[in-house]
């Protein structure tokens, strides 16, 4: 990945025919695997721009013969998909911001080797990775806090993910100690060092952890289903789920079928799937280089 | 006086006999000096207490007969009554079978998948090709379970899903309803897991492999080692620690099959194989209001999970691996 050596293949050791065949097999298999991850997306993308007629006639295609945006028009006009989209964007932005504030401020003191109470606090965090209250006690406690049917029920319980916090802490630990010493000399206090020295140097970890939190909020379905009861507050995943299940035989008593009127057709389902997927895919290339780094830091323990 | 000082911890005696005692500040002095660090820590600390530890305290209701009207504290104690009810329940064996069935299938098929894919990627010498493949296989990890479920419905439904269109062509008109057949449910779940997480799962292994000195391969090749011996003697040992670590985590979460995915894929027809601890706790607790009973079920799951992680970690250490902590 990162470091790639330059080996003069064949200069010292000649590859045998068997080796070449294995090479070809590996390349082909990898190509097929990569294809299998994107084909479902391409099919749905193509279907969302196709006419219903083509969708019923052909079982699989990647380029529609007749292009149509009717499905999107229908989805936007009838399925409240824009409201869900707006809710999800707001929820993701607000939630990610809160999570980052809490995670960064908590990780920073713990990253200082001189910080007193550090071990004790780390044990407190690690214990929560091993054991938790579970769904029902949490639900009842959050109910007592008055969080039911509120976005805060989706945001507050997950403000600090211990794994993410530890990744941030490790990143802070990697910053040179001399920066602290120099700043102390200049009369800066810990808060100023955190805000003006540590944070500006931590853009890579901020980017990757924001992505992790953000994807979590964007993709959340289960918590929204448990805690939210007002349709106006539903994020896109809840709406997508109800649209997809409308005309399938699967029963589901949680969601209100009447909410969206007549069952949408196949193309509309596909259009809604695309609308819910695209935001993630737009962000993905920009943060890819960061998240690989982030996961790697997390993989190295300590 | 001087003798007293000498006994103090960390005292340094210089060559001229002078004794220097580096001052260690009292905790109070330290906290005053670094008050801003404690200030920064405070919100997170309050979070952990309110949203992690108080819900743990809420587990007391597993030992009570919780009634919403009486509240958590006033509800009567029943000792281990809820646990007895849970273990003697007919559902318990079904839940255990389904949960372990899915977990074991995951262990056999889903766990090795990223390792194998990493080994394949490690053989690729063409950097551009490798990067394209990596970029594509990471994508499914970032889409929601709702979207995975949606794609699954569209590809596998009996009416017009591609899978069944092809299946009918091969089998001569018969359909195979993966989505509603209970015997296909475990495979469906594990298949989705493999599709969604295999690519992303390679990251940790490739990270471990990027640390391998390429000269090792070079030297071994010169010594006449073939592809398989390189893999066996260099590549696999390099990722052994990572494999063990991932295995500990997987074993630790053997009772966590996850709510979202299973909840999205189950339906009335495949329910016999689709009810696992996680979905059961949700159904009994939040839908039917059996709060104490399902808290007991949840606590059983958490305690077993914790014991599994700690045991797996000990075992790994006994075998000379570094384990998790």
Report on the architecture of this protein.
The complex is a heterodimer of chains A (302) and B (325). With 302 residues, chain A is mainly alpha-helical. In chain A, helix 1 packs across helix 14 and helix 3 packs across helix 14. The longest helix of chain A has 34 residues. Chain A is globular and about 75 Å long. Chain A starts with 16 loop residues before the first helix and ends with a helix. In chain A, 36% of the residues are buried. In chain B, helix 2 packs across helix 3, helix 7 crosses helix 11 and helix 16 packs antiparallel against helix 17. Chain B is flat. The chains are: A mainly alpha (302), B mainly alpha (325). At the A-B interface, helix 1, helix 4, helix 5, helix 6 and helix 10 of A face helix 2, helix 3, helix 7, helix 8 and helix 9 of B.
Summarize this, please?
The complex is a heterodimer of chains A (302) and B (325). Chain A is mainly alpha-helical and 302 residues long. Chain A is built from 14 helices and no strands.
Write the layout of secondary structure elements.
The complex is a heterodimer of chains A (302) and B (325).
Chain A (H helix, E strand, L loop, with lengths): L16 H32 L3 H6 L12 H9 L2 H31 L6 H13 L4 H10 L7 H4 L6 H12 L3 H9 L4 H12 L1 H17 L2 H6 L8 H10 L20 H34 L3
Helix pairs in contact in A: 1-14, 3-14, 4-8, 4-11, 4-13, 8-11, 8-14, 11-14, 13-14
Chain B lengths: L1 H5 L5 E2 L5 E2 L6 H7 L1 H23 L13 H4 L6 H8 L1 H21 L1 H12 L3 H12 L6 H12 L5 H10 L13 H26 L3 H9 L4 H26 L7 H6 L5 H4 L2 H11 L3 H28 L7
Antiparallel strand pairs in B: 1-2
Helix pairs in contact in B: 2-3, 5-17, 6-11, 7-11, 8-11, 11-13, 13-17, 16-17
